[in-house]
């Protein structure tokens, strides 16, 4: 059972930690990376592998049983594979997942599966090659599709496709993504477009969960899947399909009341909320020689300050926060 240090004043216990391994990415997605890019920090400002493992063990000792490795793009980190393997060997960890754009993933998947990979979320916002090149400012659609198939082939227990829906850009492909689930044991998760620094968000670009649901139910019969506390998505089975669909509704129907997630950025700052700009530097504490007790006191204070819910979307678009690329997916 999780210890009180990871339980906030709203009695939410945090057993899920997301760690960004790098600020670098091999794509330049419009909603994630500002048009002019981001200034990358020097390597010595980022967490070392030893520090990442140390923090992982500390959080697992306090009840975290699921870790997700993100970026940037986690697979571009030079020591990604040995780091993944070391985290996967931590006693008490039940789930080890990654979020990836899939570009460099196919050849790594057999190793990752053997090292304990339990889930992979692959970001894919279009099935049209020309639009993929535009959205990501790079080529590589087929490699992403290959990564999805390879994850299924090697037997990763949970394979999810994350699709950010943007009006006038890919909302015409919603049914095509649902059709992907017909013969593949995957879940396609449609994500409401969220505001982050530099991504030119507007509520006119956002397609709501209710609108997406209406589009889908005109063609498919879907049934709700039991929602578990902490689930980020509202999940549905699709009649006659191997896979399922889900909706991440951060903008229109938040799931803050059961949030169980904490985040550590690549430069070692802990964020208790994706949309909050409050951060505490675990990197600086580690490098100052802080004891485990002192680290846990800092973590507990930050968790204790977590708000009941994030601001609404009209306020979020004006709030200062990192670009998504510097937070971690």
TrEMBL record:
Its EC number is 4.1.99.22. PROSITE patterns: MOAA_NIFB_PQQE, RADICAL_SAM. It catalyses: GTP + AH2 + S-adenosyl-L-methionine = (8S)-3',8-cyclo-7,8-dihydroguanosine 5'-triphosphate + 5'-deoxyadenosine + L-methionine + A + H(+). The keyword Nucleotide-binding applies. Keywords: 4Fe-4S, GTP-binding, Iron, Iron-sulfur, Lyase, Metal-binding, Molybdenum cofactor biosynthesis, Nucleotide-binding, S-adenosyl-L-methionine. InterPro entries: Aldolase_TIM, Elp3/MiaA/NifB-like_rSAM, MoaA, MoaA-like, MoaA_NifB_PqqE_Fe-S-bd_CS, MoaA_twitch, MoCo_biosynth_MoaA/MoaC, rSAM. Pfam families: Mob_synth_C, Radical_SAM. GO terms for biological process: Mo-molybdopterin cofactor biosynthetic process. Pathway: Cofactor biosynthesis; molybdopterin biosynthesis. Residues 9-231 form the Radical SAM core domain. Its cofactor is [4Fe-4S] cluster. HAMAP family: MoaA_B (MF_01225_B). This is GTP 3',8-cyclase.
């Amino acid at each position: 059972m999780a210890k009180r240090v990871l339980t906030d004043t709203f009695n939410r216990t945090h057993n899920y930690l997301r760690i960004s391994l790098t600020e670098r990415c091999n794509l330049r997605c419009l909603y994630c990376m500002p048009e002019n890019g981001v200034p990358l920090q020097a390597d010595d400002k980022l967490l070392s592998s030893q520090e990442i493992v140390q923090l992982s063990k500390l959080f697992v000792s306090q009840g975290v049983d699921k870790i997700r490795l993100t970026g940037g793009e986690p697979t571009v980190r030079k020591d990604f594979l040995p780091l993944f393997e070391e985290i996967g060997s931590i006693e008490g960890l039940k789930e080890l997942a990654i979020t990836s754009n899939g570009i460099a993933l196919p050849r790594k998947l057999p190793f990752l599966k053997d090292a304990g990979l339990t889930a992979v979320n692959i970001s894919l916002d279009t099935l049209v090659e020309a639009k993929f090149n535009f959205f990501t400012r790079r080529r590589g659609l087929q490699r992403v599709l290959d990564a999805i198939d390879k994850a299924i082939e090697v037997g990763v227990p949970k394979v999810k496709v994350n699709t950010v829906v943007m009006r006038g850009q890919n909302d015409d492909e919603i049914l095509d993504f649902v059709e992907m689930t017909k013969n593949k044991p995957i879940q396609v998760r449609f994500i409401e477009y969220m505001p982050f620094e530099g991504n030119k968000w507007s509520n006119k670009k956002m397609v709501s969960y209710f609108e997406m649901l209406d589009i889908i139910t005109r063609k498919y019969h879907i049934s709700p899947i039991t929602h578990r506390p902490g689930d980020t998505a509202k999940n549905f089975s699709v009649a006659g399909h191997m896979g399922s669909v889900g909706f991440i509704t951060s903008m229109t129907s938040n799931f803050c009341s059961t949030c169980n997630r904490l985040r550590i950025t690549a430069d070692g700052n802990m964020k208790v909320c994706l949309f909050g700009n409050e951060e505490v530097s675990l990197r600086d504490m580690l490098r100052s020689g802080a004891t485990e007790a002192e680290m846990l006191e800092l973590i507990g204070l930050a968790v204790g300050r977590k708000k009941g819910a994030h601001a609404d979307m009209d306020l979020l678009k004006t709030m200062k926060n990192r670009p998504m690329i510097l937070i971690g997916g």
